[in-house]
Amino acid sequence: MVDRVLVTGGTGKTGALVAQQLTARGVEPRIATRNATMPEQVRFEWGDVASHRTALEGVDAIYLVAPTDRTDHLTVMRPLLEQAVAQGVAQLVLLSASSIDEGGPMMGEVHGWLNANAPRWTILRPSWFMQNFVTQHLPSIINEGCIYSATKHGRIPFIDAADIAAVAVEALVDPVFGSGERILTGPEALSYDEVADRITAVAQRPVHHCRLSVEQLARRYAGFGIPEGYADTLARMDDAISYGSEDRTTTEVEQITGRMPTKLTAFLAAHREAYQGRQSG
Hints:
alpha/beta
């Protein structure tokens, strides 16, 4: 039985939801954070190996979210992974991405390590988050009526982070959940033109898909302070989407959770207030 789960990235898009859903299931989430101020939090830094021991005390499973400020994920995550396996943590669940295969860059290397070394492991490979339309895309939607991308007509099966969290919780607490990767998607693949039409209907203001070249998008990301190499990697993911890399849907969310994944129209309606007013930046 799983009684305590270490949740890295516990204040992020999926981590916070995983913690909430674990609590609802009667499982204690131990939320790893640099600045632990609440009883359920524990001080943790990927680069501070000394913090790992306390974070792992009494832990039965771990939800792993890679650090977002670097790309050498296996290098920085390996000490925690090795310690967790050595002390017999029952299940390791990694948040990766549908665009990153085992052995690929960033989380792909961690995926490969878990497959080779962990007794029980699950890799969650979701498509792009619906939450992006109320976070990173929101300023340009409100201030310019634009969603910028280099995806052209490419389609993406956007997924609600709450659905990812629901799958993660099942993987964390179910003692017979099998090792392997799970490709997670929403129920429909949509182009950014179609997304813009749906936001227009909800926001009651015109929103368009404003198309950029890969080079223009990389420069846009770099202008937000993203390192040049990482900005180029992100922009090239859009290029892959334009050739159909994300144009698929799976039934994993329904099969694992017993309910259909959220539709984008329902997500946007629930976040209608986000599109009111203007934002700076």
